[in-house]
Amino acid sequence: LEYVPALLYAMTDPDNRVVREARDGLRFVSRRIDGYGLKDNFTDRERYDAIDKWKRWYRNVQPE
User: Fold this and answer.
1) CB count in 10 Å sphere of residue 3
2) φ, ψ of residue 36 in degrees (nearest 5)
C-alpha cells in the first residue's frame, strides 16, 4: 500500500503506457483485478474518473 500514492501520480502521466502500467500496479496492490474499468485505449475523462475511484478506494483502506 505504500506505493499507491506513486501509482496514483503515475496515472496522470502524459504517456499512456505509463498510465496502463500504473493501472495494472494498482490492480495488483488492491487485488481488484478488474480495477475500475480503465481500458487500454482510454480517454482523459475515463482516466480521471478512474483516478477518482482509486483515490476513494485508497482513502477507505488507508484513512490517515
Assistant:
1) 13
2) -120, 35
44-64 pLDDT tens trace: 999 999 999 999 999 999 887
- The grid cell for 42 is 482510454
pTM of the model: 0.89
- Measured between alpha carbons, how far is 36 from 22 in angstroms, rounded to an integer? 13
User: Cβ of 18: how many Cβ atoms within 10 Å?
Assistant: 13
Amino acid found at 9: Y
User: Contact at 8 Å (CB) between 58 and 2?
Assistant: no
Buried b (16+ CB within 10 A) or exposed e, 38-54: beeebeeeebeebbebb
Nearest of 61, 47, 49, 1 to residue 25 by alpha carbon: 1
